[in-house]
Specification:
Elements lengths: L3 E9 L2 E7 L4 E5 L6 H13 L7 H4 L7 E7 L4 E6 L4 E5 L2 E3 L10 E4 L11 H15 L1 H21 L6 H41 L5 E6 L5 H10 L1 H7 L10 E6 L2 E2 H4 L2 H23 L4 E5 L7 H10 L5 E5 L10 E2 L1
Bound molecules: adenosine-5'-triphosphate and magnesium ion.
The site of magnesium ion has 4 residues, from helix 1.
Length: about 350
């Protein structure tokens, strides 16, 4: 069940040199604010997903240093070495170098940050980013379609901002937006249904009551033809606005609690339990869809949860490798690394 065995960092954010053995099922990293806990999770995430959840390489490179190196040893004997020389980054896996982390070497990750607890009431763009990242992990094809959609959307929007634009000028971009946009919509709705199928049961296992919760897709799922027709119908309005008014880039996700919008109706504790449920579902779904057990990274969230939710968290992720950061050691755990 363990994926990661050891982490070695050089010039990675505040770490000039850092090493961590994670050969137990649960690794707890304890340190003061600013001591570099999140940075360790960032390095692990980089090795498993191929990119950071926080920043770009130039930000990661320790101030004043001219290279960084992160070596993540995996249990199945392979090693991921990431190097950045101030300009270029490379991944090396068992001696083979590449500019990107090859798909077959990616592992699913469930990352839980304190910010996630505010997902229910945050901005639509934050929610879109959140689910985009989850769906990218669930299906590679989602990531490909989304990237192509965003590229086509940008071209379409650039044209819409020009002084004069004819409907014909947009045609080829409409075709691309409709093709990839419809795929993005379809996959979002499909993936959301998979989450929803588990939502209430998982919630009840935490809250021990009969409440019902669900996630709604706020947007319209249309096929490619209908999508194309909408874009053509919207021509004048889009020219006036200077951007594309229809598409998955405008959609949102809504958390529902007992058939009402959770934001504004559910209590703080109920919202927290919903997010916890979502995290458990992420782990199960990623395991099923990807066929690999995700690594669970819990960044500083224990201080945000009460005793019973803390215990539930640890209990539920018992079958996964967990790497946890905290400013103080939770009672039920031993400290593996003190920063
Ligand atoms: N490129 C860099 N070079 C040097 N230091 C950096 C760099 N990037 C970030 N830092 C610093 O590294 C420190 C560690 O950041 P990190 O977020 O990992 O700490 P943390 O232990 O998670 O803190 P917190 O408990 O507040 O979340 C911070 O003080 C930050 O300002
Ligand atoms: Mg942190």
């Amino acid at each position: 069940m363990n994926v990661i065995e050891r982490v070695d960092l050089r010039n990675f954010r505040c770490h000039e040199e850092f090493a961590l053995d994670c050969n137990r099922a649960t690794t707890l990293i304890v340190g003061e604010n600013g001591s570099g806990k999140t940075s360790v999770l960032e390095a692990i995430y980089l090795a498993l997903r191929g990119k950071s959840f926080k920043g770009v390489d130039r930000e990661i490179l320790r101030r004043g240093a001219d290279f960084y190196r992160a070596e993540i040893s995996l249990v199945d004997a392979q090693k991921v070495i990431i190097r950045f020389d101030g300009a270029k980054k490379s991944f090396e896996i068992d001696g083979k170098k590449s500019l990107r982390l090859p798909k077959k070497n990616r592992y699913p990750v469930v990352l839980f940050e304190p910010d996630d607890l505010y997902l229910v009431g945050s901005s639509p763009s934050r929610r879109r980013d959140y689910f985009d990242e989850l769906f990218r992990q669930m299906n590679d094809a989602y990531g490909v379609a989304l990237a192509k959609y965003n590229k086509a959307l940008k071209q379409r929007n650039d044209l819409l901002k020009e002084e004069t634009v004819l409907a014909d000028d947009l045609f080829s971009w409409n075709v691309m937006c409709a093709h990839y946009g419809a795929e993005v919509l379809h996959r979002r709705v499909e993936n959301l249904a998979k989450i929803n199928a588990e939502m209430t049961d998982n919630y009840r296992s935490i809250a021990k009551n009969n409440d019902v919760c669900a996630l709604l897709y706020v947007g319209k799922e249309v096929d490619e033809n209908e999508y194309m027709a909408i874009l053509e119908r919207n021509f004048e309005r889009d020219v006036y606005l200077g951007h594309s008014s229809f598409g998955p880039h405008r959609d949102d996700y809504e958390f529902e609690f007992n058939d009402k919008k959770a934001d504004g109706s559910a209590s703080r504790g109920e919202v927290r339990s919903m997010i916890l449920a979502l995290k458990f579902i992420e782990a199960q779904i990623l395991e099923t869809e990807v066929g690999k057990k995700p690594v669970v990274l819990l960044d500083d969230i224990f201080s945000e949860l009460d005793d019973s939710r803390q215990r539930h968290l640890v209990d539920n992720f018992r079958d996964y490798q967990m790497i946890i950061t905290s400013t103080a050691a939770p009672e039920m755990m031993g400290v593996d690394k003190e920063l």
